[in-house]
Every structure is written in C-alpha cells, then in structure tokens.
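Can you give me the bound-state structure? Components:
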Amino acid sequence: MANILSVEGAEPAAQAGLKGWFARRMQTEGGIAAFFVGPALLLMVLLNIYPILHSFYVSVHVYNLKRPHRNPFVGFENYVMFLESEDFYNALINTVIFVVVSVIAVALIGLIFSLALNELGSGVRKWAVPLILVPWAVPYVANGLIWEWIYHSDYGVLNGLLVALGVIDKYQTWLSNPDRALYTLVNAFVWKEVPLATVLFLTALQAIPEDLYSAAKVDQAGAPRRFWHITLPALKLAFLLVLVYTSIISIKTFDLVYILTEGGPGDATALVSWYTYVETFRNLQFGSGASISYVIAIATFILAIGYIKILYRPQES
Amino acid sequence: MKELGLSRRKLLRNAALGTAALALPVSRATPSAAMVKSLNFYSWTYGISFVKQRIAEFEKLAKVKINYGNTPGSKYHDTLVVKFTGKTPLDVIYMIDGHLAEFVEAGWLYPIDEFPRVDEYRKEFIGPTADALTYNGKLYGLPYYVGHMAFLYNEEHLEKAGIGAPPKTWDEVVQQSLQIKSKGIQEYPFLQFLKADFWMGEMLFTMMYSRGGRFVDEKYNVMGYDKPDSAVAQSIQWIIDAAKKHKITQPGFMELNEVAALKAFSSGTGSFAILPNYRLRAANEPKSSKVAGKIKMALIPTANNAKPNVCGWTRAYSMTASAAKDPARKAMSWKMVDFLGGKDKSGTYRTAKKWFTEFGLGFGHAPLFKDPDIISAANKWGEAKLFESQMALSKPKDGQKAVWYAEWDQFMRPRVHKAILGQADIVGTLKTLTKQWNRLKRRYG
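Here's the bound-state model for the whole set.
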C-alpha cells in the first residue's frame, strides 16, 4: 500500500531525501506536533497575525475613505489625535464605569447563583443549569432588541411592571435619561453574562471535596468561615476565568450601544467601542479607528495580565 | 453638394461614420449585457414584496439573476461602508443623497450621464432632484423616491378640543397642544422623535428651515448658525420648552426613532407629529393604524414670517464603480437602474408611480403630478395639491454635499442632545458645531 507520506511524481533521489527527512521528523514528538499544529498555526497567522500587523500599518497612516488615494505615513499622529480628543476621554470614563460595574455584578451574581444551585439536589440542578444558560445563548443583537422593548419609556415592560407593583407611579425614561442610561446597558449586559459565570463557578464548587467541609464542621467552623477558608480559595481559578472573560467582553461591548442608545442621550453611553466604530465606519477614518483599536487591545491585554498576576498561582491550581 | 464643400465620397464616409457611431452603443451594450448571468442589488428594508416583484419582472425581461440583499434603513450607511470596504460585489444600490459626496469620493459610485435617455429623464426631475443627485457636475442615479418631513395632525383630537384649523405657527402648535392637553385628550400632544440617529438631521433642519434659517451657503460658509437668535437656536429652545416648560412632548422623545414614532402616532398617541411625508399613507391605512382616516397633513408651521420650508431628500437607484469596471456588467446595471428609475415602454415611470399609489412614497418626476392615478391615490389619504405645495417648499440639508458633512452630522448629534438635556448651553453648542464645520472644511477643502 502506498505510504501517505510519499511524494507522487518527485525525482527518486529527491523523494528519498525529502521522504527520509519527513519520516525522521515524524519520529520525534516535536515533529508530530508541528505536523498537526502547523496547518492551524498557518491559518491563525493568516487570519489573526496578518490583520493585526496590517491594522498597525493602517494606524500609522492617514486612511480616510473620503480621500482613498491619499494615504501618507503620519507616524503616531492618529494616536496623538484621539488621545487629545475630549470625546475619547468621555468614552473612556464611560467604559471604565461600565466595565467595573459589569464585572463586579457578573462575578457577584454569578457566585450567588452558583452557590444556590450547588445547594440544590442534582435532579433539580440538571434542569436548572440549562435553563439558566438561556440568556447567554441569546445572540447579542437579539439581546439588545429584547431590552429595547423592556426599557422603552412608552410601552416598555419594565415601566408596566414597576407601575403594577406600585414602585413608580408613572412611566419613567430609562434610555433617554443621562443618569440612568449607562446602568440600563450594564443591566442588559449582566443579564446576558451572568449565566456563564454561574456555570463556571458551579463547576469549581462541585470539584471541592466534601471531606473538607466535613472536617471543618468537626472543627466547629461556621458557614461563613467555611465559605471564606474553603470555598473562596477553591474558586480562585474560576474567578480568574470570569474576571478575564467578563472584562474582555465588557470592554468590547458594542451591540447594546448600537441597538439601544447609539451612544446617547448626549454622550452618556458612548463607550470606547462605540467611539471606535463611529470613527471608523461613520467618519470613514480607518487610520484613527485602527489606532484606537490598538490601544484598546493593549489595555485589555495588560488588564488580563494583571488579573493573572494577582489570581493565578500554578502550584495552587 | 460641391457648393456646400461636401463631396459624395465625404458624404458617404460621414454617413457611414455617423451610422456606426449611432449603432456603436447599442451593438456594444446589448450583446455584452446579455453575457451577464447575475447582478447584485442592495437596498434598505422597505416594501420588500414590491421590490421583489419588480426584481422578478426585470429578471424575466433581461434574462439575468438578481442577487438581492437588504438591511434596515437606519443601518444602511454603515452596512454599505462595510460591504464596499470589504469588496463585496455590489452592482446596483439604493443611494441616499446625503451620502453622495462621501461615496463618490471613496470611489464607490459611477456616474450615469453617458447612458441613453438620461438627459430626457433629467429634464423631468422635480426641483431639487437633479441637484441632489449631481456631484462635481455628474449625475449618480435615477430617483427612487423624493421625500420631505411633513407636519401631520390627528383631526379628531383637534375637533374634540374645539380647534378649527391646524396650527400655522410654532406658537400655535404650543397653544393648541396645551388646549388638547387641558381637555385631557392627550397628555403629550406633540409627538416628537429625536433619537441620535439618521433622522435627527432631517428633524432639526426642518425646524430650522421653517423658521427661515440656513446652515451654510453654496460655498459651505456658515450663515449665522451660532447666533443666539438664529433659527436653529430657536428650534432647540422650542424643543426644550415643549418638553420641560409646557410638557407637551413625551419625556422619552430622545430615545424614540422614526419607525417607533410612526407606530405610536398610528396607535393614537399624539395629536401632532413631524414625520416623513410618505408616512401619511401608512398612518391612514386601516390595516396598520388605529387612527386611519383621521390623520391629515398641513404645511409645516412657521416662525419669523418664514416660508413653510421643510427638509427634503432624494433617494436613488445608483450604479457602483465596481459594476462599471466590466462593460457587460455596466450595461446590465444601467438596464436595471433604467428599469427601476426610468420609464417603461408606454412612457410611464412605472416603478415610481407604483411606489406612490401603493406606499405613498413621493416621486422625483414632474409629469407624475399630472397623472390621474396619482392624483386619485393622493386624494384618498390626503390632498394632492397640498403634497405638491409642500414638496415645492422642500430643500435638501444645507451642506450635505460637502464630503465632510456626514462626519459633522455625527459630531452634531450628541452635542445637540446635550444642549436639550441642559448639559450644555445652546449657543455654546452651536459655536462648537460651527467650529467643527470650519475645521473639517479646512481639512478637506
């Protein structure tokens, strides 16, 4: 049977050489790894690394589609321009508030839900976990549209519910109130992201040996102490995952702004992602859009490294 | 013939050349167009069943397959930018006059002046249409529809409040709204929509034009826009007063978009609304409106003894530059533009006529004003003469053909919102907008 590694039609000497080299490489662990990982790596280079490098190239040029044939090299001028822009700082402050509140809310609510689910019997949990994952499975745009109906000041479900419960006496504006609008976005984001955090925490909780709790009870440790000394340390890795993932996703949040507020009212919900979008696709300034994206990517990377430094200890994991 | 300086040989040669020249466009265009198997057509989401019906007719006629795509109007600009940038094949598209400069400068559109019948069509365009579709002296499409913002009112509410005629001035809008409100007919009689999206410019320009204001002149010089008593300053102040002082505007007006405003108005919310003129038909359509038959149109209210001018616009069928790169594709694309935006064999602007009679969309062709079917349809849900009068008083947004207009428009939206919210003062905001306009003008000029 023909060897799958043979090179059809090659010169015998060359074939022997190439075949021999290839066979020798395939005898080593590194060679096999390279054989299997290589194609994926090549794809990654084409689909990820090249665009990253190209976007850096774009970011140091004027790339304005309204003047498509004038693309002079401007060094870091695009970076300086947006760093000097008031709109960018406003978007940055909004983003920091959005990220901090969202990440804390997702982590806390996810933890509470997972603790509650962990206390339930496995029969109930089997049904509860898939159900709780539903919001997470809703596409981002659909999520935005759902919340548009909920928040609408004239016919929104939220107003109807709150009036029915007697919490408010007349319909309120949620999306067009500059003091509330950003938090309404946070709420919509948290609703979508809590399920995944819950499942991650729940998985970690179920991996904690029951013996540890039994021993702690023997030592007269109350529930708070058991939680503090056993549960929380065991959740460090889950916390790391939730924090890194939620931070990245919240920094990238764009769909909710696009669907619900378009950055308004005023600039109350203009996040950095929205600012980048407007600069790139509305103003057609691809050069400065790329420069902002670069800075966001670097900031996200630094944040992720920070989380890992603080929370990740290999010996503990 | 000799006396005329023309020999027989010369005459025959010239005649042959002339015949060849006349035949050339036909012989080059027709067979090559037949070689095209498919075209890519993109529009925004409106009247899709009718669009598909026309596409099917064109496919049969031209023996070509049309790959049709669409996206909601509010996302149309951004979607097209992504498609053009990503080199998605597009041959014929809907085009918004406000994006013309931007798209031409980006190299995405192809002028249609070279095609047969274009001059004939151009002569029949109504007022602002030819100008709206022309950039640097070249025409970039045939009209799909021409529209303007219109002042609509619920006749029943006015009658219940004992109001005999719709308001003629902006002060009367306030007075009548307060009257309606005091009788408990509507809590917020003036249905305002002012989400920071595509329609915000149309709304503000309408309110400014109806107060006699201008933004920039033909050379893009700002015309007193940032003065404390400017028409735009008065318009913004009116919006603030209507919401906060008189409480005649619903509190959530800054989150309301155009479609939601139509739905609210059609469900009986609000006594007055400024909506695109074609929405009059939808608001009077019994299948979709609770107030069908009660919604009327009036000339836009005015102030400062100004004419009732409104912001108008033209939407077109345009050919892309990528389609024009291939002669066969170019010929077929023109065929489609002509089929949709031009006349049929009987000399009727068939698609435009149908858009009006079935959907209420205005047209860009003067002869249609005299068409009995159009007049009859118009009188079913309004007054044909009033439509013509308000159309004649519509003007495109000042400065929209500046290549930087869209960038300025985007800059304007959150700032006007902030002025309405009281987070910035009106004149300061207008000065910032003027400064930004001048800055962009210097950059692109």
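A couple of observations. Residues 8-34 of chain B form the longest helix (27 residues). The two ends of chain B are 56 Å apart (CA to CA).
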